[in-house]
Amino acid sequence: MAGNWKMCKTPGETRSFLEKFIPAVAGVSDCDIVICPPFVDLPAAVEAARNTNVAIGGQNLHWESKDGAFTGEISGRMLKEAGAQWVIIGHSERRQYFHETDELVYKRTVAALAAGLKPIVCVGEMLKERESGQTHWVLERQFNHGIAKLAPEQFAQIVIAYEPVWAIGTGRTATPDIAADAHRFIRGQAVEKFGSGDVRILYGGSVKPDNIKGLMAQEEIDGVLVGGASLDPDSFATICFASSSSASH
Ligand code: PGA
Questions:
Q1: CA–CA distance, 174 with 207 (Å, rounded to integer)
Q2: How far is the CA of 108 from the centre of ligand 1 (A)?
Q3: 164 CB under 6 A from ligand 1?
Q4: Which of 95, 97, 149 is nearest to 124 (CA)?
């Protein structure tokens, strides 16, 4: 269960969130809980989450591992030393607004793994692509040009997030069936390219406390990547409990 805070919350707001959120999810077991705040919030988040069941991640990283002349960028080494364990790569907002390509997604994934971070690699189609029946084609292209270039031992360490762009921040969640169909297709790609569909696939796009149960009831959906609803400690805690077998909320 991963929260993507995007460009929301200051360090002070991060501390306030975690003061409420960490005790609220202390009883969640059997799943990873990850919060990905903006870079400047990482020290506050890592400090507050130390020795808890909440891990912290970045929202992006540069593909160069060595320090260098890349103004405004952050390397995997920096994230790792700051205490991040995870990193989101290839989010559709980065693909749309910051010209992220499948090739860059691949390079960033390799850099994340080299730094010892666990990548959450995002894929997903735009509304016009879904409406024109190109969903599988887009997912296949994103998989082939990005994820499929990893070595099998690299692929074994990533988590994939299926995030249909038309569902992100729109309140228009994919139905559990639509999401499961895309997950099945992505898992099929993994079987084709790596001989194994043993990869965690998260769904992302307007996940809320009131639709989480239906999504998690799908066998194909292993977890969720949550934007808006991860900004409120109660709502994200409710979402986290929905995948926990040992507790109720
Ligand atoms: P949303 O965002 O939950 O606000 O739709 C999801 C995401 O962008 O990861």
A1: 9
A2: 21
A3: no
A4: 95
**Integer distance in angstroms from the first to the last C-alpha of the chain?**
15
- HSE-CB at 67 with a 13 A cutoff on CA atoms is 1
Category of 226 on φ-ψ map: left (φ > 0), alpha (ψ -120 to 50) or beta: beta
CA 153, CA 194: separation in Å to the nearest integer? 10
Instruction: Give Cα separations from 30 to 74, 119, 198, 243 (angstroms).
Output: 31, 19, 17, 8
C-alpha distances in angstroms, 93 versus 126, 179, 211? 11, 19, 23
The C-alpha atoms of residue 55 and residue 102 are separated, in whole angstroms, by 27
207 CB under 6 A from ligand 1?
yes
Q: Counting every residue, how long is the chain?
A: 249
Instruction: Give residue-wise pLDDT tens across range 78-112.
Output: 999 999 999 999 999 999 999 999 999 999 999 99
- Mean local confidence (pLDDT), 15-42: 97
Please give the angle made by the CA atoms of 199, 202 and 207, to the nearest 5 degrees.
170
* 3-state DSSP assignment of residue 204: strand
State the closest ligand 1 atom to the C-alpha of 230, by its place in the atom list counted from 1: 3
For the whole model, what pTM was predicted? 0.96
> Relative to the CA of 170, which ligand 1 atom is closest?
5
Tell me the residue type at 61.
L
**CA dist., res. 218 & res. 230, Å (int):** 21
Residues 6+ apart with CB under 8 A from 100: 90, 91, 94
Residues paired with 135 in a beta bridge: none
